[in-house]
Amino acid sequence: MLAARDESHAVGATFLFNIAHYALRPWPWLLIALASLIVFPDLAAIQRAFPALEPGIIDDDLAFPAMLTFLPSGLLGLVVASLIAAYMSTISTHLNWGSSYIVHDFYKRFIKPDASQGELVRVGRMSTVLLMAVAALLALELDSALQAFHIILQIGAGTGLLFILRWFWWRINAYSEIAAMVISFAVALYLEFGPWQNWPAHHKLLTGVGITTLGWLLVTALTRPADRATLERFYRLIRPHSYGWKPIAHKIAFPAEARGQALAPGLAVMLAGTFAVWGAVVSTG
């Protein structure tokens, strides 16, 4: 996106990425999963194929590593090496990403704005170690990869509405986003490990979205909006629809050719793109 020639090219690049990422890339995994349903139709089939395994660890997500046993030694070694490389790259990315959030978006902005570069580096190093320790402790509490997926989905669903509405409503501020991320994370862990851990996944998802939304709306109402200069600069740069930006938009008059598109067609295009991407996954199969 940042290397695109203009906004139109950036939108096209984003759409192409989502098609490649969601509609094309998962199919090698999906084909293996579909094949595993034939080779190992149930958990008893996995147990029969690997009698030395403890019955307590036989679960649905064991089908993928079970399918890897059909690979010859050379290819199996290549797959193991690729899994290790993927793990290392993902862990390093998220540790650096999380540390940058803590340092730049929290510590420097709210705790100590005049912190030196050396101090920020030290905070970054400490937060990286802390994040790794917390991640390791959390991993020990997980029973399966599916459980981790449910937690990630819960966190993303809780913050999703805010991350969309921040483009449409001027009142959302940094405290709203921090509150949404913290609340959704806490609620996801509580629903996954607390008294309601046996709830159906969709019940936990809807509950988490509702609690998180109420939480960040309350924080938004109790905190001050971003300063007017920042809001005006954002509005001039992004040109969001004026409906949710009336206190800012009425002071800024764009010429007709520079105005953003109407809200309804924009939302329709967004929904059409979303259904096109997800529909491509199913239609490919």
Specify the helix fraction band.
over 70%
Shape: globular
**Integer-rounded radius of gyration:** 23 Å
**Largest sheet geometry:** none
Taking pLDDT < 50 over at least 5 consecutive residues as the criterion, the unreliable ranges are: none
What is the mean predicted local confidence, pLDDT?
Answer: 89
Pattern of helices and strands: HHHHHHHHHHHH
First and last CA, distance: 29 Å
Strand tally:
0
Number of DSSP helices?
A: 12
Descriptive account of the structure:
With 285 residues, the chain is mainly α. Among the domains are: 89-141; 144-285, no CATH class. The chain is 73% helix and 0% strand. It contains 12 helices and no strands. It has helices spanning 7-24, 27-39, 43-49, 63-68, 73-111, 117-141, 145-165, 174-193, 201-222, 228-238, 246-249, 263-284. Helix 7 runs antiparallel to helix 8 and helix 7 (145-165) runs parallel beside helix 9 (201-222). The longest helix has 39 residues, at 73-111. It is globular. The chain starts with 6 loop residues before the first helix and ends with a helix.
